[in-house]
Amino acid sequence: MLDATAVRQLVFSDLYLGHPTLEDRFCDVPGASANPLRASSALRGDLDLLIGVCKEALAGKSAPERCKVAHDGVDYHMTTMLTAGGQVFVLRRIAGAIRSLAELGIPNAFIPTLLARGLSGLFLVAGAAKSGKTSSACAMVKERLAAHGGVAVTGESLIELPLEGAYGDGVCYQTGTGADASFAEALRRVLGTGAHIILLDEIRDQEAAVAALRASIDGYLLISTMRADSATQAFGKLESLAAERLGAVHARALMADGLAGVLHQQLAAGARVTLKTDLLLLKDAPCARSHVRNGQYELLAPIARQQMAALIGSGAAQRLAQR
């Protein structure tokens, strides 16, 4: 950090940039003595250039915007904040390529299940903010297309990762819906494309939960993300959102019939950051579906442990057989 003269040389989650009186700060810098970490004076020239890029991106726009900006060969998501002291730009680096599930840290034992040909319904990637949910969802789309072909279409308020392209016999088209489009509106647009796989923004509100659950029983594989501290919490949160409009009984029925599974992930700090994952599948799991239908989400945890143990054991047996 002390030697860096360009922002692109740094690893961080978010950069808070441009406040009139407060120093620029980087969040979650590996090995840093403080969090957030104040920008060093050596970065001043590059930070000023980046501020100029952000201001240019907002030129002519009457309200704060969320958009993509590029500087020094790196793409960033930019969100603006109008604080008491003035405007602040919040920047998050966008990955330049889609990494594989294995490269992201998804256990090898889980990957064949995530790529199973017959998977359909709503599949959620859950976790805290900045836990890599979108990266895992995109990797799943990419590898399923490479394995089975087909067409995937995304509906994203802001396109995050470079997923559009051909993968084996499959192809993905990314569509930007704009910040003003709702989840339900984005889903309606994508459903009309004939796609086999649909990737949508995070499920955050009642409308999104209801739209996703209704589409989950129509034969598509719908992949989305959700903020939750565990796989079982994701079920409770999804019901809570959908029940406001559908009622609890109807919401749980749609979940039991339409949910394919939940992959929960958590970034664990240490000497190096690692990914911890839990997987819960509802396909071919009548007991799990029954618990969901009855709202007994606390009973799902032991089923998830049994499923994961079976997957890990099966993977180990296959490796032994190949020796």
TrEMBL record:
Residues 68-269 form the Bacterial type II secretion system protein E domain. InterPro entries: P-loop_NTPase, T2SS/T4SS_dom. GO terms for cellular component: plasma membrane. Keywords: ATP-binding, Nucleotide-binding. Gene3D superfamilies: P-loop containing nucleotide triphosphate hydrolases (3.40.50.300). One of its GO terms (molecular function) is ATP hydrolysis activity. Belongs to the GSP E family. This is Bacterial type II secretion system protein E domain-containing protein. It comes from Massilia atriviolacea.
